[in-house]
Amino acid sequence: MLSLHQVTVTYGAAVAVDDVSLELSAGEVLAVLGPSGCGKSTLLRAVAGLEPVSAGRITFDGGDLAGVPTHKRGFALMFQDGQLFNHQSVGANVGYALRIRHRPRREVATRVEELLELVGLAGYADRAPATLSGGERQRVALARALAVEPRLLLLDEPLSALDKSLRERLALDLREILTRAGTTALFVTHDHEEAFAVADRMALMRAGRLVQDGTLAEVWEHPADSEAASFLGYPTVLDGSAADAVLTAAGLPVGDGVALRRSALRVSAEGPLHGVVLSSRVTPDAVRVEVDVPGVGVVASVTSDGTAPPSPGQEVRLEVARNRLAVIPRR
Ligand code: ADP
Ligand code: MG
User: Which domain range does residue 90 map to?
Assistant: First the structure.
């Protein structure tokens, strides 16, 4: 549906987006994940028609978008700050795009109710934006963006301004809302947890370039390189002899790098790796233990269910779960 073919966007001599090719199918949510400054917003703005493309081509449903102005693309945009009209009610904000298209009042009112229901704010139509929490404001902004059933929804870090617990909840709600509305969306974020919570597919960007893309599982299970693995949220990423030691302990061939989920390393009396506990911490999910393993370095691990947290200085052994690690092919 949306197709980017070798797209480059420059600001003067600076290349912000460098030769990026991407495909997005109808009804799919694609997360573009990358650190701050890597070119995510620029890419989104180019798709929206807010930034000229200096090389390459962007097409939608087969039609070239070059020369199609922003307001004729049929896309909707949503930003970190939903930019609500504060002097208008929630209902008026949500119905704004329908009113300027001169839809009948009755129809607008019905659609506004539907949209508020969709985003979990039924009954909020008469509220003033100033009386809403940050999360509620972003829900209103989302309802407003969805009002005209955009062909494509472009979301630029829509949850970044919210606090962590709200962000996690709203990320899951956002996925549910987009899926239920059947919206095709391009979602840009620097937060891997958000990307995994919201998207079907992921594109990893770094310094203007596309590092890898695929389904969530493909990207998670096969990080392109160590840096990608760290950015995807693997707490331990090893290469060289450190990786060899862990791969050997896992019964795997050596020579590649390895990224380990925390639960890939478990404190166990029989484990093949030996180390010294640096710290341990009880969390709702697991007891998290940092262990210094000679020849490997400091790694993140967990204890087996029900065992007491080991104390700092204690010697422990670790076993490696090979289904909880990702091998990173040496380049
Ligand atoms: P991200 O959204 O991933 O944080 P941006 O797309 O905003 O990244 O920025 C990518 C690069 O382009 C950065 O180096 C940034 O400083 C630069 N940049 C962004 N907008 C402009 C602009 N209007 N003029 C010049 N440089 C810009
Ligand atoms: Mg940005």
Answer: 2-230
Q: Alpha-carbon distance 99 to 108, whole Å?
A: 7
Could you give the 3-state DSSP secondary structure of residue 331? Answer: coil
Position 170 pLDDT exceeds 90: no
Residues 249 and 222 both lie in one domain:
no
Q: Among 32, 42, 160, 210, which residue has the most ligand 1 atoms within 8 Å of its CB, making it the best to mutate?
A: 42
pLDDT per residue as tens digits for the range 23-68: 999 999 999 999 999 999 999 999 999 999 999 999 999 999 999 9
Q: Identify the residue whose C-alpha is closest to ligand 1 atom 1.
A: 37
Among all bound ligands, the one having the nearest atom to the CA of 37 is: 1
| Statement to judge: residues 223 and 238 lie in one domain | no
Q: Are 85 and 137 in contact (CB under 8 A)?
A: no
Q: For position 168, what pLDDT does the model report?
A: 85
For ligand 1, what atom is nearest to the CA of residue 157?
2
- Ligand 1 atom showing the smallest separation from residue 205 Cα: 3
From the CA of 40, the nearest ligand is 1
CATH code where residue 256 lies: 2.40.50.140
Look at the chain and report how many structural domains it folds into: 2
If you write DSSP's letter for every residue of 247-287 in order, what string do you get?
A: HHHTT--SSSEEEE-GGGEEE-TT-SEEEEEEEEEE-SS-E
Residue that finishes a domain, picked among 190, 213, 230: 230
Within this chain, do residues 126 and 225 fall inside the same structural domain, yes or no? yes
pTM: 0.90
